């Protein structure tokens, strides 16, 4: 057992899979159904159809990386900022390099919002991976 005075929530593989699937399904829904519906009907959604996929992308990829990589690269929160920074860098490079994609400032805003959602999930309580608990025992 962990002998911390604060309660520690263990992020099990089941939870990691749930979060990954949840965010990827939201991204799929927003990109495949919501976005075409909004654009075809001329609905004003304040840009959610444009950035919705990016909002769900950061948490989805973060939890998918947790599934494949048992240890954090830098730390729980620092990994979120690192992942977001890499994705923003790729978005910025798309403005200058052909073939990477299309630059859109709204996508950067969506990535930052997604990082905030991910930060909120991880910051709620100190969360560690189940394998780290098993190694401590």
How many alpha or pi helices?
Answer: 5
Radius of gyration from CA coordinates: 17 Å
Strand content: under 5%
Shape: globular
Characterize the biggest β-sheet. Answer: 2 strands, parallel
The structure class reads mainly alpha
Averaged pLDDT, please?
82
CA distance, first residue to last residue: 6 Å
Strand arrangement within the widest β-sheet reads: 1-2
Low-confidence stretches: 1-6
Can you walk through the features of this model?
The structure is a single chain. The model is unreliable at 1-6 (pLDDT under 50). It is built from five helices and two strands; from the N terminus they run E-H-H-H-H-E-H. The radius of gyration is 17 Å and the shape is globular. The chain has a two-stranded parallel ribbon. The protein starts with 8 loop residues before the first strand and ends with a helix. The chain is mainly alpha-helical and 137 residues long. Helix 1 packs antiparallel against helix 2 (48-68) and helix 2 (48-68) crosses helix 4.
What structural keywords apply?
two-stranded parallel ribbon; 4% strand; disordered N terminus; globular; 137 residues; mainly alpha; single chain; 5 helices
